[in-house]
Write a structure and sequence with these properties.
The chain folds into 2 domains: 19-44 and 362-580, Orthogonal Bundle (MetI-like fold), CATH 1.10.3720; 82-252 and 279-345, MetI-like (MetI-like fold), CATH 1.10.3720. The radius of gyration is 26 Å and the shape is globular. It has helices spanning 9-12, 22-49, 66-73, 76-108, 114-123, 129-140, 146-155, 167-191, 196-203, 208-237, 240-249, 254-262, 271-299, 321-345, 365-371, 374-407, 411-421, 428-439, 448-458, 460-472, 477-484, 489-518, 521-525, 534-543, 547-579. The chain is built from 25 helices and no strands.
Length: 580
């Protein structure tokens, strides 16, 4: 018996139904909302960049190119662009190289402890770059950094001093912070690559190195190139590490230059010039995104996964297993060192070089002191509200937008998808300046709700990309069957779609929670006494300077995120393993 199901107007195309169905109204509301979230702030940013110096968009309708002329006439602009490009490119090279080695050892060899490595890498989203950078400052500070003190005690006072305030140090530290993200992305490439071509080369007598050079790397190169471009986009936009390392080292990049123009230590903010630099950075990011799309399209020609099943073989490390384990252990030791020194600093009234004799004097006084600070209490409560509301709104909006993007055959669905993805090309510092200009002088300015709206906008791209992939795998006939039995559209989503894609929903929610909690860009650009959050509090307390209290607040933040991330990841993994 065949049951015919009449397609809804949305399934047939946007022009097929002119009624006011729930789907049609919802789609139109989503289009308007996403347009306002994304295009509204960017329009204000563009208009401000074209306003005469010293004025804002709402102060008149006169236009001027003086801000752009100032950019190209300044002597330091060439150095600014050079610093930004070299910093981003070199950091990505370091990060991808280390991530590639670790991913290959984990996915394609019989290295022991592979599950632990994956858990540690995924858990890294709980470590804010701000805390990671402060840890390295404590480790290699020229005067009393742990590593420098140890080197002087071993080799004498003449040993060269390591400093975090140099271009090379900034690149290496940033590269290390990229490794977990690169690992996750490269692991997917290696896990999904059919080894048939490698096996054929082995049958023909090729050695391991020859296979890696002539077969494996050429197959991976398009994917690695696209990952490299994606990470370069992220590094061009990054703000935390260039702020705490580059500012002291007097190494400006575009993100910190925009921040200083909009939030100067003294004088009046130059929003016009900051907006012009923001538009310039936005254009650079768009070019990188176009290159990313071209690279991902090119990678389609290198597909090796077909309909047949396959299981990549694990290479036996043999005598190289022990050196590989040691190398991986050294990497994780290097990554843990900044956290350990921050933890040590939080246990004493002032920073001191770690010694066993001082361990007995450790106390939790810094934790008690920081929790007695009214600003910190306000920051913690603000952070809880911001991350929970932001993550929930992002997941809700992303789910609805992805449903229309995947199910709709008309212009409306494609328009929603494009607009929702467009924040991917907008650097966070640029979007933060745009939101500052939009809400400046309004009742929302200075409230935590500006942060919520900002995170909802910039993380929409991640949410829709994740849920698009999940919804594509669900055949429409499941929802059609629910419709035949009288279920409404909303009931079909609640009873059919959500229960199937719940791991993706939960992972997206968790990702947004972690990244909105650790972000410093929006909180610092939009900072007032009422909307302070934990990340901006850590920065302000460190700058006082009060390193022990900043360290204690950092460790509480890391502990809270780890306590949230790890159990949920374990829960999802067990559920998926149980139900296949």
């Amino acid at each position: 018996m065949t049951i015919g199901v009449q397609a809804t107007p949305l399934e047939l195309g946007d022009g097929a139904g002119r009624g006011f169905s729930v789907q049609t109204i919802t789609r139109r509301i989503l289009i308007l909302l996403v347009f306002l979230l994304v295009c509204g702030p960017l329009s204000v940013l563009l208009l401000t960049s074209l306003s005469p110096p010293g004025t804002l968009t709402y102060q008149g309708l006169s236009f001027s190119t003086a801000n752009y002329e100032s950019i190209f006439s300044q002597v330091g602009t060439a150095r600014l662009l050079f610093n930004t490009f070299v910093y981003a490119a070199c950091s990505v090279i370091v990060g991808v190289a280390l991530a590639g080695v670790l991913a290959w050892l984990t996915e394609r060899t019989d290295l022991p402890g592979r599950t632990i490595i994956r858990i540690l890498m995924f858990s890294w989203m709980a470590i804010p770059p701000l805390v990671f950078g402060y840890g390295w400052i404590l480790l290699i500070n020229p005067g009393n950094g742990v590593i420098n003190v140890a080197l002087r005690s071993l080799f004498g006072a003449g040993v060269p001093t390591i400093t975090p305030y140099s271009f090379i140090a900034m690149i290496l530290i940033s590269g290390l912070s990229l490794v977990p993200t690169g690992f996750v992305m490269i692991s997917g490439l290696l896990r999904n690559m059919d080894p048939v071509l490698e096996d054929a080369a082995k049958v023909l007598g090729a050695g391991r190195r020859s296979i890696a050079r002539r077969v494996t790397l050429p197959l991976l190169s398009p994917g690695l190139f696209s990952i490299g471009i994606f990470l370069t986009m992220a590094m061009v936009q990054t703000f935390d590490l260039p702020l705490i390392l580059g500012m002291t080292a007097q190494i400006p990049v575009l993100s910190t230059r925009i921040f200083l123009l909009a939030s100067p230590d003294s004088g009046v903010p130059n929003y016009g010039l900051a907006s012009a630099f923001g538009i310039f950075l936005l254009c650079f990011a768009v070019l990188l995104m176009m290159s990313y799309f071209r690279a991902t399209r090119a990678s389609e020609r290198f597909r090796t996964v077909s309909g047949k099943g396959f299981r990549p073989k694990k290479a036996k490390l043999g005598a190289q297993k022990i050196p590989a384990v040691i190398a991986v252990s050294v990497y994780f030791a290097i990554m843990l060192m900044p956290l350990l020194i921050v933890l040590w600093t939080s246990l004493f009234p002032f920073y001191r070089v770690p010694t066993l004799s001082d361990l007995g004097q450790a106390s939790l006084d810094a934790y008690r002191n920081v929790l007695s600070d009214s600003m910190v209490i306000r920051a913690i409560s603000n952070t809880v509200v911001v991350v929970l509301v932001s993550a929930t709104l992002v997941v809700t909006l992303s789910c609805l937008i992805s449903w229309f993007s995947v199910r709709s055959k008309g212009v409306g669905g494609r328009l929603l998808d494009i607009m929702a993805f467009s924040p991917m090309a907008v650097p966070a510092i640029v979007m933060a300046i745009a939101f500052l200009l939009v809400f400046l002088g309004t009742p929302l300015y200075g409230t935590i709700w500006v942060l919520v709206i900002g995170y909802m906008t910039i993380y929409l791209a991640f949410g829709t990309r994740t849920l698009n992939g999940a919804l594509i795998q669900i055949h429409r006939e499941l929802e059609d069957a629910a419709t035949v039995h009288g279920a409404s559209w909303g009931a079909g989503l609640r009873l059919i779609v959500f229960p199937i894609i719940w791991p993706h929903l939960l992972n997206t929610w968790l990702w947004v929670v972690a990244h909105s909690a650790r972000d410093l860009t929006f909180p610092l650009i939009l900072l007032t006494s009422t909307n302070v959050v934990v990340s901006s509090s850590i920065y302000l307390i460190w700058e006082q300077p009060n390193q022990p209290q900043a360290a204690s607040l950092s460790m509480m933040m890391v502990g809270a995120l780890l306590a949230l991330v790890i159990p949920i990841q374990i829960y999802i993994t067990r559920k998926l393993d149980r139900f296949g």
